[in-house]
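Subject: complex prediction, re-run

Hi both,

The earlier run crashed halfway through, so I resubmitted it with identical inputs.
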Amino acid sequence: IVARTITTFIDCDTKQRRCRHWGDGPAGAQPEDHCSPHLKSAREVLCVSGSDLQRVTGLSSSDVQQLLIAAATSCRRHHPIAALVLHRKFDAGLRLSVGCPVLNQLLRGGLLVGGVTELSGESGAGKTQLALQLCLSVQYPTQYGGLHSGAVYICTEDSFPIKRLQQLITDQSLLRSDVPPSLISSLQFSDRIYIEHVADLDSLQVCLSRRVPLLLTRGLVRLLVVDSLAALFRSEFQAADWLERSKQLLTFSSTLHHLSSRFTTPVLCINQVTDFLSSSDDSLGPLSSSVSPALGLLWANQVMVRLMMRRLQVTVAQGDQSSVLRRLEVVFAPHLARSGRDAAVWREGVRGVMREVEMSQWRGSEEGGGGGPHFCLTNKETNGCK
Amino acid sequence: MQRSVSSLSLSPSVKVKLVNAGFQFTADLLHVKPLQLSKETSLSQLEALEVLQAVRGETGGGDNGAGGGGGGGGASSSLTALELLQKEEELRSIVTFSSQLDAALGGGLPVGKTTEICGAPGVGKTQLCLQLAVDVQVPQCFGGVGGQVVYIDTEGSFLLQRVVDIATAAVQHCSLLVEDDEQQVAMATFTVETILSNTFLVRCHDYVELLAELHLLPDFLSNHPKVRLLVIDSVAFPFRQHFDDLSQRTRLLNGLAQQLISMATSHKIAVLMTNQMTTRLRGGQSQQVPALGESWGHAATIRLLLHWAGPQRLANVFKSPNHMGATVRYQITSEGFRDVDQSEQPPSKRARKHTVQMAAAREPSET
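This time it finished cleanly. Structure:
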């Protein structure tokens, strides 16, 4: 066989063994001739086309096919599985409860455990409140909608609202009337929430590549919250740096996806909003307010479930507390309809408020859920109770 | 055939080259293509063709098309256009539950061709894929194809909760159409459980896993001849991760497109792919275009663009060899992908009797 001029050899013996293990090599050929130093792994072999492989390794086309199939078999995680097998697994349809039966009904059980959920809204809409509630709800056992583990909370802008967290912990038994009080008092909530402060993208990348995987591997956490990501990506880049920004955004989102799928962990990203520039910019569907989530189409393509929270012009009262009413809406999700529920923020947390028409629909459906106290809705304009 | 190559009527230099390359007997040459032969023996293509003709002439049997074909010369004989037309008409299209979309596509999703769905996030691409994954399993006596489906999920958006919704609605829809015993028997094999068992799911986490799966798919398809649909949701997601070398991405996508087209024609399956949208700046104006570049536009035979127009959802067939571009309205309900007007006709290629229309009219009041 003709000797080729190959520039550098790195440990040709191991490549020889690797080539033989892959089952190629016609008899009589020299091993060096079909191992190029550039193909070091099965993944790289798959990224080269069949004819390029032939040229580089000098194998015949049927041998190249065999090589490709062997490389593909080693890269593949599992055979095609019938969906029925997945349906019958015990953790099919696992969800992280939000802590309120009304909001859980909107989300058909709660947050998805695989994939990125985005929660966007104006400042003061209640996004951080909902995120804190999720950090507590993840610590309950699975029968109460939790994942029996802690949470990682990554703050990028303000400092972590520790006083509010303490308040929520104190009043947990009020919010979660479905959980026995003995269980609530036995859980050390604040011990299992890990707070990270990151000020720029580099430290965010370090945090996501080192500290968070460590916590996830040890099983200490099963919820990742990033509050808020628009702050990092907007401030650091000028308008002309959009290429660099896109690259960073894609790297960040791919890290999130890998973490989420490897550890079956829900990821919640809190996002800010930006105004609509023109009425023709409705490519992402009709929105009920004049603002849309920041970071544009590139980020929207990476998100699986998009939720929006906005303040309404209505106040609602409960006992001695009063709260501005919010609306939590599903913008898109693979398994959810585009609808929303009103919610109010109380001392004990975020609780959904059912409107009359939604209540009658809910009574008609099979599951009623736990149900918290119902509220009287005072409308400022009509000054009456709904 | 243990006949030695040296006994063939060829020039001596050619024989020497053949023997040096390892082809001792005519049996070695039986299943070799001319291009492959010329590469391995460093013969010219013309000489390689002559050698193969001599071998096939000597063995007496062989393929009719080998002499006529150029570089191809495989085992298939050439077909006339009439035969191709007859073959195409035998393959039924996959009927969706949206008659307007079926009309725009010319009868449904064509089997044997590649189709691409582009759209912004949240417009309904995954919903249409899930709907078709259920619709391909509708039994033949109801006008469906009665096949299985391989669903390659790269984003994680294949949620069983939603699939069960769509499957339940489809089973209910068909059970209202039952008119005779044959359909009654077929309904026993068309339940939510059988729909789930006939859907083969693969979860790919990056583009290498996707490429690996596509290399191994022809084997799987040969072992499962009832598969009629391959869904890849979505092709864009793993390929829009950061690539240092964009030309490598284009090469990989071209290779992928070729593989999908050859799988569609050789195994007689419909291939459905999902693509994302990206913004392109052109002369100071930005517009949304399908992602993955211009050359990817040639990969699919038929391209559908799903988009919003105010509160309405529209589907636009903007590339199709058979039919001119049409735009139809659709909606996504709890039952799946449907037409907008409620009086949609249930999918059936048989003559409609008035009992069927009564069943369709009964439906809205039952929900």
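Chain B has a mean pLDDT of 83.

- K.
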